[in-house]
Design brief:
single chain, 214 residues, mainly alpha, 4 helices, transmembrane helix, coiled coil, membrane, BDR-repeat family protein, plasmid
Amino acid sequence: MQESSLQSVGSVQVFSGHVTEDIIYQEFVKMGMQDFVANDLSKRYYRNELTYKDIEYLENNFNFRFEKLEEKIDGVEKRLEDRINSVESNLNLKIEMTERSLKSEITSVRIELDNKIDNVENNLNAKIDNVRSELKSDIKDLDNKIDTKFNELDNKIDTKFNSLDNKIDLNKMELDNKIDKTASELKSTLKVHNWMLGTIITICVGILLTLIFK
């Protein structure tokens, strides 16, 4: 019945029940002892026949195992640190690559947007130039049409004035002819009247002289 002794020497496992010789043997084997040593020590440990050298051997063996365990723990800790560092490095690398990729994509998108803006601006400028050219052409056509209409109107006015002048000249000529004809007729009438008046006066004078000299 070495329950408390097993806990103090081995510090490996705590049992709530009966500790057998086989359990002690298994624990010694787990500590790295050879089978015959573990078998011998487990028997003497179970019978409480351990000597000072046996206890010293067990202590040294335990310390050795503990050092090995510490080395393993240190190794595991080192490997964990290496893995953590590796993961951290990989993560940092991935973050840097992602950041570079994002910057590259942002730059690419910015360049693409700038190109699109330039294309839109160029297209808009081209359309404005086309509209301006079309407006200039339309204005020129309108000016030509206005000039044509003004020329046609001037021609019509000139034609009307010429026609009116011709009519005025014709009416003036007709009026002059009528006046000349009327004047000629009046002159002829006056000549006849003068002749008739002279004849009447002559007759009257003759009659008067005849009456005087009777």
